[in-house]
From TrEMBL:
GO terms for biological process: signal transduction. It comes from the Bacteria. This is Putative signaling protein. PANTHER family: BIOFILM ARCHITECTURE MAINTENANCE PROTEIN MBAA (PTHR44757:SF2), DIGUANYLATE CYCLASE DGCP (PTHR44757). InterPro entries: Biofilm_reg_signaling, CHASE_dom, CHASE_sf, EAL_dom, EAL_sf, GGDEF_dom, MASE1, Nucleotide_cyclase. Residues 718-881 form the EAL domain. It comes from Tepidimonas thermarum.
Length: 881
């Protein structure tokens, strides 16, 4: 017996697994090293004092090859996400890819430079090699990341333009130090020659790790001290701002209560005296919009108030500041005295009880006897975008505390009040937001940028940003969000960064020294082992494009034919029967032209889905192009089995289909051929099924027929008619086409009302051909529009000639009726074609009628309706038939 040697298992799975391991391992190591480096970050800098991942990336690219670079990119993206979170910036931006690309380029360039200038595998134990590595190759490679990343972060606004050069230098130094410190550790773990690097674990790796741990601990302590100092500065600024604003708010209430006491003693104070009294407070507290005295006017007092004293109408207002006559109520609180009057005249006569938010504050002020502020709203007299509030205080008679004389109020433009109160404080680069916690959600912002009351912007440092305030029985909140500029203003000098860099530079020099010293023990025997990494090449699947129809997802002609050959070969061997159904949609061209190609495509997709629902799992449905579909029916029970499928398809396709809100009926003509009775090859069966399909179409459409040998004669005549019709349209004058004009006579007085144009064809070779036969051929062949254009043009010329001759009196008022095919009417250029044909008629065009089918009216879309309007506007009549 023959002995067949078994082939070894393929190597690509192992290579692919190793590549994936390298990518994942490099990404994890890079991310962990990045997290450790972030613990040494000196706020508020984006660049780190030392960037350990740079050494991980360079070492991985050098020892593991280019397969590590995708892992470097993934790890760099993860570190960028962590860094963005640390500095309070959004990482959901394509800009994080720039530092990732810079880190990958730096790793690849550093590894390439080492291989070119020093060589690898190498133990790096000669002083010249170490100098080239640490003082030439690594610093040059580190230039790449800083030069790519810093400009991108400046463009995004994460690094301030004024800090660009400093951040670039810090970034470059951090990457260079990180590579110098971590690359020897990576080489100890993964470097080649393996024996040379494994021997250095104790005399290189251990001292270097201890030095890194000590240096990192010192830097962490210094960074924590600076962070605490920055946090204290921010909170001090916030506390000072809150206290200053609270004092200003308390002073506003004092002013309001002083005005209330004045009005209690003299409630009938005149406008000029009121403005003099209020002017003192308005000048002292900028941002105060006005002071008002709202008279209490009862229902009985309203007529006198509006007609005599003071003699202006009492008005209401809505949320948008629109004014209207105040509705009747038991009592009104009407703004009667204002200061200053000139800039607040729009508020005079307003009944604050007519607007719910103001009425609530007024009622609370009366009930409590204390000043009460409203929710923020738009002041009537406001011309800008600032939010305003009004504080109300009840004015009572001195001897009758229960008697309310009116309400004294003061309106504030909160942006101006806040700015005036805090203008003297050093609050540069602090985003301010004043919030009313008692207001309804969505209406809490008093001052600050839109949305600041809901924004949760991260800060460069976790500091307190909210301070509570109390004003006129409401709970407010002052939010101060420090920006990058604030940290730059209050940050300490560069001594911390310089100390940290100097310390890590000393550790790097220690690493260089240890490399040279430990390399003296390197063995002379070197093991050079190269492993070829086979990367699996993924081939894009072309099956869908090569074997399936892109529109419907059905198999195409080539794949269907391939499967049909296989099925017929099996059927020949087993003596089984196979059916082929060739179907053509009856009204697809009309629907496609009238509703557009997009709806035509949807129709084909719907038809394909319905056909699939009629078939068995083993049947093969294919689309051969256009509106032609072919079904392969393996293992049927003779003609009866094929007939069952054909009937089911015909019923399914006869059901209406909804396209863009319009219901259409498409129908189909089906031809059926059965193997082996109607043919022994795929091509023969397709020809017979196609012939049977044409016979079904000639029988009235939405029909199905089995192939019969006598059908060839019918198909031949149909093809002859189509060929002759095309030739006829090229030269209609010598082809036998003619028009007859059938009179339309009134049954009452025998008067001729119109002439209906009828088309006749006496072909020289084929003889007389009835319109019912050649019209259908013209529609199926797509030349009905040419035929219709000839009929309309010829009829118009004849009608115009009669009216120009002696027959004109007999034709007075007689209309000319011309049939129009729905397919013609649906053509985009139909209107222009008609207008060109009727040009000889001149004013007689009003006697022309185009007869269209009711099906066109039922299925007409906006474009068809537009064509109808265009024709009727030119005087052309349209009638249904």
């Amino acid at each position: 017996m023959d002995v067949v040697a078994s082939s070894p298992p393929p190597a690509w799975p192992r290579a692919l697994g190793r590549s994936l391991t390298i990518v994942v391992g490099t990404a994890l190591a890079y991310a962990v090293a990045g997290w450790l480096a972030l613990q040494l970050r000196v706020p508020p800098d984006y660049a780190l004092v030392v960037f350990f991942p740079a050494g991980v990336a360079a070492g991985a690219a050098l020892t593991l090859g280019w397969a590590a670079l995708p892992g470097v990119a993934l790890g760099a993206i993860a570190v960028q996400i962590l860094t963005h979170d640390a500095v309070g910036a959004s990482w959901q931006h394509w800009g994080i890819l720039a530092p990732a690309a810079g880190a990958t380029a730096m790793a690849g360039a550093t590894a390439w430079g080492i291989r070119r200038a020093i060589g690898y595998p190498s133990a790096f134990d000669e002083p010249a090699q170490v100098i080239r590595l640490f003082f030439v190759i690594v610093p040059l490679g580190a230039l790449l990341n800083a030069s790519i990343s810093v400009p991108t972060l400046v463009a995004r606004g994460i690094i301030l333009p004024g800090d660009a050069w400093g951040q670039w230098a810090s970034w470059w130094i951090g990457d260079a130090l990180g590579t110098v410190l971590i690359l020897p550790l990576v080489l100890v773990l993964l470097g080649e020659p393996r024996a040379a690097w494994a021997a250095r674990r104790w005399n290189l790796a251990l001292p270097l790790l201890l030095a890194l741990l000590l240096g990192g601990s010192v830097v962490r302590l210094l960074a924590d001290a600076q962070t605490q100092q920055l946090r204290l500065r921010a909170e001090q600024a916030g506390t000072q701002a809150a206290q200053t604003l609270q004092r200003r708010l308390d002073a506003q209430l004092d002013a309001l209560e002083a005005m209330g006491q004045l009005l209690a003693r003299d409630p009938a104070i005149g406008q000029e005296a009121f403005e003099d009294a209020a002017g003192l407070w308005l000048r002292r507290y900028p941002g105060t919009q006005n002071f008002t005295f709202n008279w209490r006017v009862t229902r009985a007092q309203r007529p006198h108030y509006e007609c005599c004293d003071p003699g202006w109408p009492i008005l209401g207002r809505d949320a948008d500041g629109r004014r209207f006559p105040a509705p009747d109520r038991d009592e009104h609180m009407v703004i009667t005295r204002l200061a200053p009057l000139e800039t607040n005249i729009a508020a005079r006569g307003l009944d604050v009880m007519s607007y719910a938010p103001l009425r609530t504050a007024v009622e609370r002020a009366i009930a409590s006897g204390r000043p009460q502020a409203t929710e923020p709203f738009r002041l009537v007299q406001e011309t800008g975008v600032q939010r305003g509030i009004v504080v109300y205080h009840a004015v009572r008679a001195p001897a009758q505390a229960h008697t309310v004389l009116g309400i004294v109020s003061s309106a504030f433009r909160m942006g101006d009040v806040t700015q005036a109160a805090l203008d003297a404080l050093p609050l540069q680069h602090l985003a301010l937001c004043l919030i009313d916690l008692d207001a309804a959600p969505g209406n809490r912002r008093l001052a600050g940028a839109d949305g600041c009351e809901t924004a949760d912007a991260p800060a460069a440092l976790p500091v307190r940003t909210d301070w509570p305030l109390r004003f006129a029985q409401r709970h407010w909140l002052l939010r101060l969000q420090p920006g990058d500029g604030f940290w730059r203003l209050v940050a300490a000098d560069a001594r911390l960064h310089l100390s940290a860099s100097t310390g890590f530079l000393a550790v790097g020099l220690l690493a260089a020294f240890l490399l040279v010293i430990s390399g003296q023990r390197r063995r002379t025997e070197q093991l050079v082992q190269q492993r070829t990494l086979e990367l699996a090449r993924s081939h894009a699947s072309l099956m869908q494009l090569a074997h399936f129809d892109a529109l419907t997802g059905l198999v195409n002609r080539s794949f269907w034919t391939e499967q049909a050959h296989t099925v017929l070969a099996t059927a020949r061997a087993s003596g089984q029967e196979v059916g082929i159904v060739f179907l053509d949609l009856d009204r697809f061209k009309h629907i496609n032209d009238s509703l557009g190609h997009t709806q035509g495509d949807r129709l084909l997709q719907t038809v394909a889905a319905r056909l699939q629902g009629c078939l068995r799992a083993r049947d093969v449905l294919g689309r051969f192009g256009g509106d032609e579909f072919v079904v392969l029916l393996p293992w049927i029970k003779g003609r009866e089995g094929a007939a069952t499928v054909a009937r089911k398809i015909a019923r399914t396709l006869d059901e209406p289909i909804t396209l863009h809100g319009t219901q259409v009926r498409v129908g189909a003509s089906l031809g059926v051929a059965v193997f082996p009775h109607d043919g022994d090859t795929v091509d023969a069966l397709l020809r017979q099924a196609d012939t049977a399909m044409y016979a079904a179409k000639a029988a009235g459409r939405n029909q199905w027929r089995f192939f019969e040998p006598t059908m060839h004669a019918h198909v031949s005549r149909r093809l002859a008619i189509e060929t002759a019709l095309r030739q006829t349209l090229d030269d209609p004058a010598h082809s036998g086409l003619s028009l007859v004009y059938q009179p339309q006579v009134s049954a009452q007085d025998q008067r001729v009302l119109g002439l209906e144009v009828l088309l006749r064809w006496q072909h020289p070779a084929l003889g007389p051909i009835p319109p019912g036969e050649f019209i259908g051929v013209a529609e199926d062949a797509g030349i009905i529009d040419r035929l219709g254009a000839w009929v309309l043009q010829t009829a118009c010329h004849q009608f115009a000639a009669w009216h120009a001759g002696p027959q004109a009196p007999l034709l007075a008022g007689v209309r000319l009726a011309v049939n129009c095919s729905p397919i013609e009417f649906a053509r985009p250029g139909f209107v222009e074609q008609v207008l060109q044909a009727v040009a000889p008629l001149g004013p007689l065009v009003r006697l022309l009628e185009l007869e269209i089918t009711e099906s066109l009216l039922v299925q007409s879309g906006a474009d068809v309706a537009q064509r109808m309007r265009a024709l009727t506007e030119r005087g052309i009549g349209l009638t249904g038939r």
